[in-house]
Amino acid sequence: MKNDNAYGFAFNDVSEEDIIKGAIQSGVAVFLHGRSSEGKSARVKQADPDCEIVYLRNATPESLNGKSVYNQSTGEMIDVKPTWLLKLEAKCESEPDKIHVVFFDELTNALHAIQGMAFNIIFDREVNGKWSLPNNARIAAAGNDLSDSVVANTLAEPLFNRFAHVYIETTLDSWLEWAKTPKRSYQRLDYVEETEQELPIHPAIYAFISLKAHSGVNVLRTKYDGIKPNADPRKWEMASKMLYATRNPEMIRSLVGEGITKDFVNFCKIRIVSIEDVINGNYSSSAYEGDIDKKYATALALSQVDDANVTIVRDFVKKMGLEILQLFDDFWSKGNPERVKQLEDIRSMGLTWRTK
Q1: How many CB atoms lie within 10 A of CB 223?
Q2: Which of 101, 160, 191, 276 has the maximum number of C-beta atoms within 10 A of its C-beta?
Q3: How many CB atoms lie within 10 A of CB 104?
Q4: CA 255, CA 236: separation in Å to the nearest integer?
């Protein structure tokens, strides 16, 4: 009998650089924490050697958001884009198959008014409510720790929660590795147009949150402390994007924190019976027995079965209990009217057999 984790994930360790690249690839804005001179901008340049850097400590409203000028010949006001946006647009247009990063540096050293403008750019991917960022543009930011700068400000909670958070701590080994890496080996990430996922939230996340709720633990939201990442509905949506893009659950620690990620990884590592073995009857009773974690993982993985074999697989899932069967039915049908009708027919056939 084949056994695998439910979602085909890889569980190799990921570095700070891996998470930065994973966030950038999946379109999740990433924030780099760390003391001054920890090499935060160098990490971003490994993903985009020619990233557009905007230093927010000295930014003005006009340099960040653009300005309006009076046209004497027409008597009208003309909106002028900020220089950094013009440069970013030119890079994105010249290399449409590559990702280009705008890097808002010293965000924690910016005035609250400037932070608010940056928040609008990060939140809406729009500048001054007028100009959208190019599709192949990505956002990164960085700031010094409060203990490392007397002029640093805390990030407002809505702004903090829009980022994946990476905490840079340069060790001797990591510095030596960086020091021997030539800049010519830095490579821009390929841009791939986003395709709409069949489900807005990855099934692994849905199953994990549902399982925790079944156990009386709410991981949909966790307490915000302004220091480390916490979970909330938006963060889980961002985590879903990273899972679809990277297929590595370790990545989401930058979004929901270390503790929840550890539990999530352990859940995803549960080894379960394959669809192929269920169809061929190649399993023992241990495949459908076990704790609730295993049953959730198994049902969600088997819900990927095709229409032709759903009856066989559903009969297997039924051995795990009616609650797990309902979970399987919900995910297999996905609200598709044809599949909903097929399930109704299967259920009615079962009732007919029982009455004979």
Answers
A1: 6
A2: 101
A3: 26
A4: 8
